[in-house]
Amino acid sequence: MVGETLKFWLMIAWLLPLAGFAVEIFFGFYSKNPRGSKAAAWMAVACIGIGFLCSANALRIWGNANEWCVLESHDTHGEHAEGEDGHGEEAHEHKAADENSHDEHAVSATDHDAEKTGQTAYSGEIYRLATFGSLTIAMDYYIDSLTLVMFTMVTFIATCIHLFAIGYMSDELVDDYVDHFAHTADGKHVHRPGRFYRFFAFLSLFCFAMLGLVLAGNIFQVFIFWELVGICSFLLIGFYTERKSASNAANKAFIMNRIGDFGFLIGLMVLWTFFGTFRFGDTAQDNVVTEQGLFSMVHRDAESHDFMTDADGEVLITDPSGHVLKDEAGKARTIPYFLLVIAGLGVFAGCVGKSAQFPLQTWLPDAMEGPTPVSALVHSATMVAAGVYLAGRFFPMFAHEVLLTIAYTGCITLFIAATIAVVATDIKKVLAYSTISQLGYMMLGIGVFGWAAGLFHLITHAFFKSLMFLCSGSVIHGCHHEQEMPKMGGLLKKMPITALTMLIGVFAISGFPMLFGLHFSGFHSKDAIVASALAFVIANPIHYLLFVIPLLTAGITAFYMFRLWFFTFWGAPRDQHVHDHAHESPWIMAAPLVILAVPAWLCAYGGESGFLYGMLTGDEPAHLATGVTAAGKIVLPSHHEIHQVHGDAGVLALLAAFSGALIAYILYGTTLVNVEAMKKQMSIVHGFLTNKWHFDDLYDALFMRPAHKVAAFCAWIDKTIFDTILHGLAKAMIVIANWDRMFDEKFVDGFVNLVGDATQSVGSSLKVVQTGKLRQYVMFIVLGVVALFAVVFSTFPG
Amino acid sequence: MQPDLTSYLLVGAVLFVCGVVCMATKRNGIGVLMGVELVLNGANVNFVAFSKYTALGLDGQVFSLFVIVLAAAEAAVALAIALNFYNNHLTIDVDRANKLKG
Questions:
Q1: A632 or B93: whose pLDDT is higher?
Q2: pLDDT score of A117
Q3: Which of A257, A588, A589, B52 could be stapled to A353 by a disulfide with Cβ–Cβ 3.0 to 4.6 Å?
Q4: Mean pLDDT over the full length of chain B
């Protein structure tokens, strides 16, 4: 049974980090030298590393089980591309340029589903937590190609980051750690015990949460792990909890996510009310569906591929074969269309919070307060990926309106974040904004019906963004915790490995084409998104911004990423002190960079006929291939339409990227233009951007200050009214208590004392009788006897 | 001629009163013990005398035997007390034994 085998391997990969967490967190209490030992770190690495092997193995089993049929439709040249995890046994020589294969591919894509032979998605129950009437809360699993790719990607990246963190966090291996960024009240640095083992425990828990989220087979389970991911990010962002900025950032990340989760909960309520289940897929036994999941409950019309509706426009709820389900009264079960939209929007609201989309994007840059390995993990493979992953996973339930919202949200986000990244000077902040921007691309891709493109970019972005974050970590480590780029410069000679691996990341994110005949991963994935957007805009010209802005932003992306690289590694050193002390990182930090650079460059090998894309699209929702053409609504393009415009979109995106990179080179790579003077000339724009479009100020004025006002008012009411009442009550109680005490002392105590005193006085008056004289006692006895006789005889004289 | 019950009771009463007077007047501990013996034997005489009127004619005599045995045991214990008292106070004057005075 393939499903059981897959479940077995993925559960090992999922639960090992949890076991690791338990051991690592208690290790600190039971070890002789918890602060100075690296055992916890190696434990964490072992757990996640084995998890990676299990995931890769599951991927192989899955592929063998269905004879890699998902690749065949793309595999027009009879070859398999290299796996994204680098274990490329089935990798062969790639011969043809991607563009040539597009037309052939487009034809085969339409009858893609008919070709598919083996079962590719498996779902079922792991453990039932509770049953409340018809509501079942369970740990389910839903394994398809997306799950497997995500598992392999997350575990691989996490392994690299764990290794890197061993080097990066090594200064925590002391009993007395001095935090130079945190001050006590008297202005001294904070001294605290090192927290090496705790850091790795949290990392392990984080991985567990993320893997659980990916494996989850129902939306409620997703929500559970969603929150778990949130709390882990809270713990890690606020890792330097003594720093005010860090604890604030942790709170901000957590609270911003709560806002999105509120929408998520509403979505869950709607779904459960109308569908009565949280499950994604059907649970089948011997090919008979025992429990139906959400995805098979909404059926798509054969012609328009939109949801099947009844005469009133309500969406019909069907069984897996498309027959409408009836309720007890014999009426067809339906869900009002607007509620389906609300459910979709609600779930997407959760994604907005988690993936830092507009308008909840402000938490992510602040999250840079965490240690750099955390930033790398949060911003590539785990936390923010969760939002995009869920948007992709839940795609079959999204209506037109939801998709359009997703597209516009992504579009706004990617533009805002990219513009802010242009002026940011903190190396990590630039990467943070670029993350937001790239997440916007993914959301846009999903929103414009480029489902596979969005998730494709999720995977490629995870690799090159984690690489770049680790590079920035290496730079920060090498420059002794200097994060400001204006103080760097000329580090290429000092840290060649970091600089070159970073350059690969920069090429990848900018969407540059080949180097040594091999295309960068970002080139493929970003092309795919831009092409989807172009096809969408051609079908719906009114939404032209959805193509123009991403295209423009592709240029901006290239600009700010090259700006970062030139700023940091190129030219003359700007701060001699920092430059003199800079050094290349030790091997434990450099090795993950080199390892990650390979998939960052090549994971998308073969583009849309390659392995990764084939894997991702293997289980894509069926209506994607055909597009949706419901009357009076937005037209969603089919695969064929997207592929027709792919070439044009690719050329445009490439032009944008090249021009962006060129401008960056002119401004920062050469001394032709005085950047400072330019900054002064455009000070209004510059100020606007450095203040992050005033979003923080806006939220401050909209929510924070009113909240403070309300809080102050409430405090006033509390202090003047409620406190007075309470104090009065307290005083009355004291008076009553005094009376009570008086009664007790005078009456109750008096009576008891009286009894005691009487007993004592009787006793002392009787004690004189006890003379101790034996002869006297005998006399008493005799007299007593005589008296007794006298009484007896006088009473009974007979 | 068989003496009647009254004379037995008279002897018992005389013995009893002698014993009580001895107990009440003697300061010597041994004297007091002797008084106790007299009292017990006065009682024994009465038991024996009354035993004639019981069904078997033996009950009172058996009782008096028990009393004699008990008296012996009592004498042994009392003499031991007297001896210890002498060891501690170098006297057996019962008036000196007033430690339990209230």
A1: B93
A2: 42
A3: A257
A4: 89
Q: To the nearest whole number, what is the mean pLDDT of chain A?
A: 82
Contact A400, A637 (CB under 8 A): no
The residues, ordered by sequence, that sit 6+ positions from A116 with a Cβ below 8 Å of its Cβ are: A66, A69, A70
Q: What is the pLDDT of residue A34?
A: 66
Count up the domains in chain A and report the number: 1
What's the count of helices (H) and strands (E) in chain A, helices before strands? 32, 8
Asked if residues A277 and A294 have their Cβ atoms less than 8 Å apart, the reply is yes
Token pair recorded at residue B98: 């007033």
Position of tokens 């389910």?
Answer: A140
Residue A704 lies in a domain: no
Structure tokens at A425: 């000077």
Per residue in B31-71, pLDDT tens?
A: 989 999 999 999 999 999 998 888 888 889 999 999 999 99
Q: How many contacts does A have with B, using Cβ atoms within 8 A?
A: 37
CB nearest B20 (choices: A772, A774, A782): A782
How many angstroms from the chain centroid is the CA of residue A725?
47
Interface confidence (ipTM) of the complex = 0.82
Q: Is A182 helix (H, G, I), strand (E, B) or coil?
A: strand
Q: Which domain holds residue A82?
A: 2-272+338-690
Pairwise CA distance, residues A728 & A725, whole Å: 5
CA diameter of chain B: 56
pLDDT for position A346: 92
* B43 CB within 8 Å of a chain A CB: no
The amino acid sitting at A536 is F
Q: Which amino acid is at A506?
A: V
Beta-carbon separation of A775 and B99 below 8 A: no
In a domain, A328, yes or no: no
Contacts of B28 in chain A (CB under 8 A): none
pLDDT at A70: 63
Burial A726-763, CB ≥16 within 10 A → b, else e: eeeeeeeeeeeeeeeeeeeeeeeeeeeeeeeeeeeeee
How far is residue A607 CA from its own chain's centroid? 27
Other beta carbons within 10 angstroms of residue B20's beta carbon come to 20
A295 occurs within a structural domain: no
Amino acid, res. A151: F
Supply the pLDDT for residue A85: 40
Asked if residue A601 is part of any domain, the answer here is yes
Contacts of A413 (CB under 8 A, 6+ apart): A356, A357, A358, A361, A436, A437, A439, A440, A443
List, for residues A582-629, the tens digit of each pLDDT value.
778 888 888 888 888 888 888 877 777 777 887 777 777 777 777 777
Question: What confidence score (pLDDT) does residue A79 get?
Answer: 36
The verdict on whether omega for the bond into residue A359 sits within 30 degrees of 0, i.e. cis, is: yes
Question: B102 and A778: CB-CB below 8 Å?
Answer: no
pTM value surpassing 0.80: no
* Composition of chain A by helix, strand, coil, percent to 5: 70, 10, 25
> What are residue A387's phi and psi, to 5 degrees?
-65, -50
- Please spell the DSSP secondary structure of A227-243, one letter per residue: HHHHHHHHHHHTSSTTS
* Cα A501 to Cα A413: distance, rounded to the nearest angstrom: 27
**In contact, A209 and A377? CB cutoff 8 Å:** no
Q: How far apart are the first and last CA of chain A?
A: 114
Query: Quick one: how far is CA A450 from the chain centroid?
Result: 22
Task: Return the residue in A764, A770, A777, A778 with the most chain B beta carbons within 10 A, the one to mutate for interface testing.
Answer: A778
